[in-house]
Amino acid sequence: MNKENLSIVILAAGKGSRMKSAKAKVLHNICGKPMLYHIIKASLEVSNDISVVVAHQKEAVIGEMESFFNDAVTFVVQDAENFPGTGGAMKNIAPKNEKVLVLNGDMPLITAEALQGFLDVDADIIMSIFDLEDPDGYGRVKIQNDEVKYIVEQKDASEDELLITHVNAGIYAFSKDVIKKYIPLLNNDNAQEEYYLTDVISMARADGLKIVPLLVDEEHFKGVNSKKDLSDSEVIMQDRIKTSWMNAGVIMQLPSTIYIEDDVTFEGECIVENGCRLTGNTLISHSHIKAGSIIEESIVKNSDVGPLAHLRPASYLEDTHIGNFVEIKKSSLKGVKAGHLSYIGDAQVDEGTNIGAGTITCNYDGIKKYKTIIGKNVFIGSDSQLVAPVTIEDDVMIAAGTTVTSGKVTKGSLAISRTKLSSIKDFYYKFFEKN
Ligand code: UD1
Ligand code: CA
Fold it and tell me: Structurally, how many domains does the chain consist of?
């Protein structure tokens, strides 16, 4: 089936009360992106006509999604006051194509490949089912003689029905006619007083329509209702991301302790040790990231970082060594060594420069941030403060313990600011009255 023949409707208007959150459920992040983002991304691979139904916190949901997808999807507002529920959410939609795939907005693990099963079969209704040892929270699917009879929600189910382990995964393919005919016939005569999309199944069956069950896996169709579900789904997506990078040649130690977001990319043979966190639009190329390091939205090329280093957004490292307890922010370092305990912010540091332990760029005066420019082959002694704005030209030495306040240190000089050391004989013994 090609993209032009399929419409997709994503239901994202619910409150998501089981999340116990002030934020709309579909905006909760998994691997750095909102759940709804992942679903729309997979949907765009199989369809050009995507409607997202919104109501609860609709401005926030629309705003965030437009920041990712511009106008690639259409938003439809549900009258959730008068027509609450997944069936109510379908009232105002106007799909362009004959075949309409309906997805819940809380299944972030869905992929284009996993949707393929719905596109290959021709039927009035295809619905997704999985078998779970613990079906808690899902609608139960009554199957008799290999045919789907009805779906009953957990809150409406009898004791016998609760024991059913076939559950409704929450994706359906309908013909446009089925939607047109049955959505207006739904009622809210149930425990939640909601209009259930799932009731279309029993009505259609009563009319003799063919309902094809499609057996799917929880790996791709897991619904997120609670924060526990959110974290379980993130583990699954993390595993996918890390497996794919390991298959591409990245070495990871104890991958279960590593967190890597969706937009991170690797080039060449990289090593990521245990306990690292790599986020945002980060690129790691031919580099070694040592244990416990955090890299946010940065580029690291031919370098080694950590253990326990922190690269904050907009850092650029090339041919550079960063050691433990070094924090870098919005800085570019090429051919540099910063081995221990430093803060380098809003700086540009050039080749052959060594940054001693405890060096701090004082980039902020309480109102504004200023730049530090450090040239080639500079030696910065330990415990130095560079008060920005400041330029350190090539071949400069900064003596240990110096505070550079001059704005500029010219090529080839030594900068030193120290009070003279005085040493008072036998002071210790006098002070503590010992002899
Ligand atoms: C739904 C199914 C259940 C299935 C499960 C799979 C119904 C009645 N039940 O239950 O059979 O096992 O999904 O995950 O459909 N939504 C709206 N408008 C609303 C209410 C919900 O757009 O008024 C959206 C939500 O934002 C959510 C999706 O529909 O993305 C599903 O809603 P949710 O409340 O999570 O349904 P479940 O109880 O999980
Ligand atoms: Ca759900």
Answer: 2
The Cα–Cα gap between 145 and 161 comes to 16
Give per-residue pLDDT as tens, 34-66.
Answer: 999 999 999 999 999 999 999 999 999 999 999
Q: Are residues 147 and 185 located together in one domain of the fold?
A: yes
Residues 104 and 206 in one domain: yes
Ligand 1 site residues, Cβ closer than 6 angstroms? 11-14, 26, 53, 78, 80, 84-86, 88-89, 104-106, 138-139, 151, 153, 167-170, 196-198, 223, 225
The secondary structure of 180-235 as a DSSP string is HHHGGG----STT----TTHHHHHHHHTT--EEEEE--HHHH----SHHHHHHHHH
> Is residue 424 classed as helix, strand or coil in its secondary structure?
coil
Task: Note whether 291 and 187 are same-domain residues.
Answer: no
Which pLDDT does position 126 carry in this prediction?
Answer: 96
Q: Do 312 and 168 sit in the same domain of this protein?
A: no
Give nearest CA residue, ligand 1 atom 13: 170
The rounded Cα 108 to chain-centroid distance in angstroms is: 11
207 and 301 housed in the same domain: no
Look up the domain containing 168 and give its range: 3-215
Q: What is the mean pLDDT of the chain?
A: 96
Phi-psi region at 311: left, alpha or beta (left = phi > 0; alpha = psi -120 to 50): beta
Q: How far away, in angstroms, is 349 Cα from ligand 1 center?
A: 53
Question: Which ligand 1 atom minimizes the distance to the CA of 15?
Answer: 26
Q: Is 248 helix (H, G, I), strand (E, B) or coil?
A: coil
Of the residues 56, 286, 310, 340, only one is catalytic, namely 340
Whether residue 430 is contained in a domain is answered as no
Q: Decide if 220 is catalytic.
A: no
pLDDT in tens, 151-206: 999 999 999 999 999 999 999 999 999 999 999 999 999 999 999 999 999 999 99
Q: Are residues 34 and 156 in the same domain?
A: yes
pLDDT at 435 over 70: no
Any domain includes 422: no
297 in the same domain as 175: no
Q: Look at residue 239 and tell me if it is in a domain.
A: yes
Query: Cα of 103 to ligand 1 centre, how many Å?
Result: 9
Q: Whole-model pTM?
A: 0.94
